[in-house]
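Handoff note, outgoing to incoming analyst
You'll be picking up this chain. Sequence as last confirmed:
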Amino acid sequence: MRGIIAIVLITLGLVVLAYSGFTLVTPGKPINIGSVHIETTQRHFIPPIAGAIALVGGILLLVVGNKRS
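Most recent structure output, in case you need it:
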């Protein structure tokens, strides 16, 4: 199980670093003014440092997991 989590962290870390950050768009709070309904979105930026942390964490998890086996 640790190996799978480590590989996912490494992959996500590399993707975030390759794109110099990553922007996620999520649905926001809808606005209702009378009969007008407006959908909103929110943007969330994942900085490259988060990718680096995920990459290092995945590598450490992979190394520590192999040493314990």
